[in-house]
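Quick start: what a row looks like.
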Amino acid sequence: MVRTLIETDRRIPDALRVAFGLCQRPHRRPASTTSEPMDCDEPVAPGGLRMVFESCYIRDHDEDAHFGHAEAGVVGVADGVGGYRDRVDASAFARGLMNNAYMEVVTAAPGTHVCPRTLLERAHQATAAASTAVIVSLAGRTLRWASVGDSGFAVFRGGRILRRSRAQQHHFNCPYQLSSSPDGIRVADAAAVGEVPAKEGDVVVVGTDGLFDNVTDDELERIVRLGTALGFSPRHLAEVMAGFAFEAARCADRDTPFSVLARSDRGEAFPACGKPDDITVVVAYIVGASHYV
């Protein structure tokens, strides 16, 4: 489904806008805003839990990519390296990585529990990739993840962050990137991996740095609490988060995680601002066997 930013923006409650000091509602359309549905009418994952998820993608350079497979209970996002933009198609790296990850999942035996690190490693081996990436899977009652760079995830329980990835960077604004060059970063050497027990009612948010550079952990928690209290669907919550991040990225009078880190790295003169970028948000609800969409 294709939406204009105005349509997505209308999904952000005014109370949320006022509380967070967002800019006025935008009156222009970005290059493209896309909500990409992912099929969720799949069998229940072993252990009585499954993922119900949707996504929202707001393009800037159009170098993000993502995938999801509900039956396998796995989602992932990737962000092509913008620093290569003048030499190669950076978007092709991210799309190739996510496409290869998806193909690994769909060709696996039914009922296979996906190991995010193994999946990311296999997808990278089949891709001439320079990209950040994160993959999160639900195996029975356990959430597992593998990430490289500054694409990340957060797991919420009761509206509070239970587990949150942290960006891997060589230095400010220079994240680790999977690379196929002889001296490049490999999954086996650099991926941050882990797991946490999952519970019905958990909310998992997976996104590229366009989300996490512009929205604080506290703001993410408040959005999740608001969305769950109002009964938002995963798609609605993904659209609200992406729309919020888009506006925050273009505000010139409020701090964001990006500007706070930039000030720490470059000095007190760095202004309060956001960081315009591609924004990919995947929201997954962990639900029980009796849940129907």
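That is the whole record. The mean pLDDT is 85. The longest strand covers residues 49-59.
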